[in-house]
Structure formats: structure tokens, C-alpha cells
Design brief:
Length: 250
């Protein structure tokens, strides 16, 4: 909060006289309070001392208010295509806000000496709604025209518009580099994840293959036929063998 606003909030005297004094308005009666000067609508500090009804004369020029223009029906209103824009992260928004506050101080330092009375509040040079509007349209601000459309109420476009655009463009470049780094990192991680999934699938397939081969060999072991009996043993079995083969059990 700047000093002038703090003084305004704490003063007990007439607010209108206070502001006239603050901004150097020395017209007759400017420094007198509302009751003394019989102002038609007293300020909030003088109101408790005000006695009598508030009187507002009827306007002589317009007896009836004009009707409001009819709003277009939903079917007539052309639907706006959704615009997909990249948003700032919380950290980027905080960084930008800080930079814009520093820019406000910079404009204040440069412009305050150009004021005739020197009591203009800081917010007049670059107020909070201006900062909020820039933050909300930050990515889209790429030219002086767009900047002017974003904050048309700002009085210092011609004096400081270029330096404000340079500040915004510099931050946009930094953030674009950060977005790109995040994108590359995410791609790298997804590639590694896909690779590890692929390796795991291959390992599983190999395990299954080995296991299935083991099952087949077990099956083959079950159905394996006995080797053919040599002819000499056949002779022993049939009682035609020599003595050396006696006792051999087949
Ligand atoms: Zn007053």
C-alpha cells in the first residue's frame, strides 16, 4: 500500500477536503468540509454530522431511461471455437507477476517527476488489473497492437509500451525453453518406460518359451520307447546264449 492510500484510510477529516489538499486543488471552498460547504452529497466522514434529507433534483433532460438493448438469442450468437492455449504454470505466473511489479516501480520512478503535484498513487502508473490482464493473456501478447488491446486503459503505451513488450517477450522466451525442456524430459521418460515394458515382455516370453520346452521334453520322456534289444540278448532270452551271459536279467 502506498502512503497516500494509507493516509486516506486513516484520516478522520472530510475526505473531499483531504483529496483536494492531497492533489493540490485550491479552488474556492475546496479545503472546507461537506457540512460547512453544504455539499449535496456529503462524504462518508461528514455524513454522521449531516442533518436533513438527501435531495437529488429530477433530471430536466431525460425523464425516462432508455430501454436496455435486447440481448441476442443463444441461437443467433455464433459459438466461439474453443481456443487451446498454453497456460503459465504457477511458478511462471509468480515470476511474471514479480517482474511486472518491478516494472511498475520502474515506470513510477521515471514518471513521478512529470506530475505537477507529485502525489499520484503508484497504482495509477501500472495498476493491479493491468498486471492481472497481462498475466491472463501472457502467451498471446506478441506485438504492441495485442498489448494495446489487452490493456487499452494504460496511459503509458507510447512512453513505455516497447520496454513492457521487451520484458514480456524475454519472459516468453525463457518459459518456452522451460516448456521444451519439460517436453523432452517427458518424452525421454516415456521412451524409457516403453523400453522397460518391452524388455519385461521379452523376458516373460523367453521364460514361457523355456517352460513350454520343458513341458514338451517331459511329455516326450513319458512316451519314449525302450531301445531295441540287441540280438545277442535276444538269444539269451530265447535260451541260445553262452555261459558268460547266465544271470543277466533283462
Ligand atoms: Zn466531507
Amino acid at each position: 500500500m502506498n502512503n497516500e492510500k494509507a493516509l486516506m484510510l486513516t484520516t478522520k477529516e472530510c475526505l473531499i477536503a483531504f483529496f483536494n489538499k492531497l492533489y493540490g486543488n485550491n479552488t474556492p471552498g475546496a479545503l472546507r468540509d461537506c457540512i460547512e460547504l453544504s455539499r449535496r452529497l456529503p462524504c462518508s466522514n461528514c455524513l454522521p454530522r449531516f442533518i436533513g434529507p438527501l435531495y437529488f433534483p429530477v433530471s430536466s433532460t431525460q425523464t425516462h431511461l432508455l430501454p436496455f438493448p435486447a440481448a441476442p438469442s443463444p441461437s443467433e450468437a455464433a459459438p466461439k471455437p474453443p481456443v487451446k492455449t498454453q497456460k503459465l504454470t504457477k511458478k511462471m505466473r509468480a515470476t511474471t507477476e514479480l517482474e511486472l511489479c518491478l516494472f511498475r516501480d520502474h515506470v513510477y520512478e521515471l514518471e513521478r517527476n512529470n506530475d505537477s503535484h507529485g502525489f499520484t498513487p503508484l497504482a495509477v502508473y501500472f495498476n493491479d488489473p493491468t498486471i492481472t490482464s497481462i498475466l491472463n493473456h501472457f502467451i498471446q501478447i506478441t506485438s504492441l497492437e495485442i498489448l494495446s488491446d489487452t490493456i487499452p486503459w494504460w496511459k503509458y503505451h507510447s512512453q513505455h509500451g516497447l520496454s513492457l513488450l521487451a520484458l514480456i517477450s524475454g519472459l516468453q522466451r525463457d518459459f518456452a525453453a522451460q516448456f521444451e525442456a519439460v517436453r523432452l524430459d517427458r518424452n525421454k521418460k516415456s521412451r524409457l518406460h516403453a523400453k522397460s515394458k518391452c524388455t519385461a515382455a521379452l523376458d516373460q516370453a523367453e521364460d514361457d518359451d523355456i517352460k513350454s520346452k520343458g513341458d514338451i521334453s517331459e511329455v516326450e520322456d513319458d512316451v519314449v520307447e525302450p531301445p531295441p534289444i540287441p540280438p545277442t540278448l535276444l538269444r539269451i532270452r530265447n535260451g541260445h546264449g553262452g555261459k558268460q551271459w547266465k544271470g543277466l536279467k533283462i
